[in-house]
Amino acid sequence: ASWFKDEKSAGELIGKLRQLNVYTLMISIDPFHNEYIPFRKVKGLIGACRQHGMDVFPWLMEFWGDLDALKDSRPHGLEDYEKRFGRGYTLRLLKRYHLNLRGRALSTYREYLSSSPLEEILRSSFPCRELSGVHHFHVDLYGNFVTQSCPGLSIHIRDLAEGTSPEKYPVINALFSRGIKGLYDLAVEKYGFTPRESYAGRCDLCHDIRSCLVRDLKVDLPDLKPEGFYIYD
């Protein structure tokens, strides 16, 4: 609901979506989105959908009461929820939201994770077949297919349909064929990546490599899109 401004402008956009045979909007309802989006926008968008014949798939309604307990005119960080609902609220969200520890979640929950030496993680490397899963995925506004579990990794939808090239998508190819060791070798040998001594598992190492390539080394690759995912992480 970040794009919601008022009922009138939302209604105009909803009308255009219906003309394109879109009849349901999934609207996020959870403390993680509320860190950036006031709850009043969520309420307003749901109301606009009802007024203009658009079905709503709310994700997740079980958090409605949590968000509604705080002032809905502004965003709220997780520390606000800790104050309102008690210590441990953030940790309990792991199960309630069925969260996988990738992307921004790594930063949020790093203090709860145990670390392993870099060499141990590399020794246990295996091909990352999660990249080929399609039971849950997204296509972003730029036409990128975003894999089910790894935000920040992308393949343009046309390339996905017609066939991808290892040369064009070196990061995804390295992960899919050799796992985290393949990406690590690529980053060190081709781009001069310098790792930390330990990480909270292979996903933490993977995220650090990709973030360094985009944010620090300014590497422009089609499988590391959109850049904003790394720049504003």
Structural summary, described in words:
The longest helix has 15 residues, at 202-216. This protein has 13 helices and seven strands. The model has no long low-confidence stretch (mean pLDDT 93). Helix content is 47%, strand content 9%. A hairpin with a 4-residue loop joins strand 4 and strand 5. With 233 residues, the chain is mostly helical. The radius of gyration is 20 Å and the shape is globular. Helix 1 (7-19) crosses helix 3 (39-51), helix 10 (170-178) crosses helix 11 and helix 11 (180-191) packs parallel to helix 12.
Q: Please tally the β strands and state the result.
A: 7
**What fraction of the residues are assigned to beta strands by DSSP?**
5-15%
Task: Sum up the overall morphology in one term.
Answer: globular
Biggest sheet strand line-up:
4-5-6
Succession of helices and strands:
HEHHEHHHHEHEEEHHHEHH
Q: Please work out how many helical segments DSSP would assign.
A: 13
Radius of gyration: 20 Å
Helical amount among residues, as a percent range? 40-55%
Strand-pairing-aware structural class:
mainly alpha
Return residue spans where pLDDT drops below 50 for at least 5 consecutive residues. none
**Biggest sheet record:** 3 strands, antiparallel
Q: Whole-number average pLDDT?
A: 93
Instruction: Determine the N-to-C terminus distance.
Output: 20 Å
